[in-house]
């Protein structure tokens, strides 16, 4: 960085764009199309639905009490948390070696090509990509054909789809690129000579990895975790497509209440999720760099 | 790009280095296979004769591509998606870029808080935002859902991306350049047009590109805020629910091919531009000096 011009020498007349007004349209959009609707939802979550399915403005905590008193709902919520954690763990475990290989052993030019290859799936329909897994895991799917072909099973198995495992696999598939991009960005800044130096000084490779590399890429790892964990809390499409009856997550319940016009219950459930998301974001706000993940390639 | 060979890389640091590298290479292959397996099936079935995607594969045929072109509803959905992405991206790029300036430069003490507020629409589940907007439009405002309500729904989550990306670029911007321009007599508007905007243009373009990508494929918020029309993702969803035909596979394949081609072109153009600018840059510099 060049030394800044001392404040006394900076031009007094500031350009129009440095005043606050350019923020106005964005502020209005955020206020009217985001904060206001969310406030209405908060209000709904504290009101009640009468027998005619109308929303009545009687203030009450019943919707939240209903959520926590019903075993199925709490279990589904816990299951969603466990699912999100399991996908996050798998995402980091698969993406870290991948990104490490890319940064350490692949030349600049090929790095960009492989990165692009990781991003390209985003350019095709999310719905069709998730749906395509049915053609792989389903009863007439490729996996069954393959296993029957090599004689491992005699008849098609229904065990591969419409359960928690298939939801886990497809969620991993959908969110892997986020983890890979966040970790790549972090590793790219790391000076690998440090690893060599550590080993020269007598550290075992695993010690060098744990004590030199990991602490320096921690922000990237946290970003990756957030980018996989948080969206899964609101996932209802993948469970709908490959989860069947068994694979439902908390957001599926919200959609069901929405279809059943139980708006107040729905709003309360939504804010249980939203509260969780906001807490995660506030705790990790220092690490969260959205632009690092999305503005690559 | 020839980089100097790092002597440290040549030293066998550990006997494990070579097998580890082979292992990692294999793993990278597995990962890429995993990423492209479903896409391969999606493309494969677009050429299949059978109405329901499944193995064994029979074909290839271009039947579904013909069907796709003569399917009016599908084509209209594609057109709606394109219009939607264009309008939403234009608006959010404009609004978002404008907002980045005061956010970075006015020395907001609450810049961190502003960051969280702009991150929220990105990180909160789409279902939540969609439902909140639906209730807001229908119950609070009493307006009918239409093309414009979806546009608003899309701006809510695309604009923050533009804000964050352009802000990041502005943060690294050396303001001395702008002040130098002012010293040399440029009006603020002129300095903006000739100094600031060209330098942050890559970030604006990146923001717009991300906005288009997200908007074209967005299903959840669209589903809740769309009027009687359907977009490509909502059309695909209905197809999946009520019996999908390989026509949608054909559309997705065409879209994928189009994007890869576009990216390839952009890649080639960027390379070409770099070469040209190297040649012309030198010539221009010589002219200026001479």
Number of helices, where a helix is a run of at least 4 consecutive DSSP H or I residues of chain B: 12
Number of domains of chain B: 2
Q: How many distinct folded domains of chain A?
A: 1
Helices and strands of chain B, in order, run as HHHHHHHHHHHH
Helix content of chain B: over 70%
SSE series of chain A:
HEEHHHHHHHHHHHH
The biggest beta sheet of chain A is recorded as:
2 strands, antiparallel
Q: Give the CATH superfamily of the largest domain in chain B.
A: MetI-like
- As for the CATH topology of the largest domain in chain B, it is MetI-like fold
Strand runs of chain B, count = 0
Mean pLDDT of chain A: 83
What is the distance, rounded to the nearest whole angstrom, between the alpha carbons of the first and last residues of chain A? 25 Å
- Shape descriptor of chain B reads globular
The share of residues in helices of chain A is 55-70%
What is the alpha-carbon Rg of chain B in Å?
25 Å
CATH architecture field of the largest domain in chain B: Orthogonal Bundle
* Main sheet characteristics of chain B: none
What CATH calls the topology of chain A is MetI-like fold
* CATH top-level class of chain A: Mainly Alpha
Describe the structure.
The complex is a heterodimer of chains A (297) and B (290). Chain A is mainly α and 297 residues long. Chain A has a single domain (70-294), classed as MetI-like fold (Orthogonal Bundle). Chain A is built from 13 helices and two strands; from the N terminus they run H-E-E-H-H-H-H-H-H-H-H-H-H-H-H. Chain A has a two-stranded antiparallel ribbon with strand order 1-2. In chain A, strand 1 and strand 2 form a beta hairpin. In chain A, helix 11 runs antiparallel to helix 12 (263-283). Chain A is globular. The two termini of chain A are 25 Å apart. With 290 residues, chain B is mainly alpha-helical. In chain B, helix 4 runs antiparallel to helix 9 and helix 5 crosses helix 7. Chain B starts with 6 loop residues before the first helix and ends with a helix. Chains A and B meet through helix 1, helix 3, helix 4, helix 5 and helix 7 of A and helix 2, helix 4, helix 5, helix 6 and helix 7 of B.
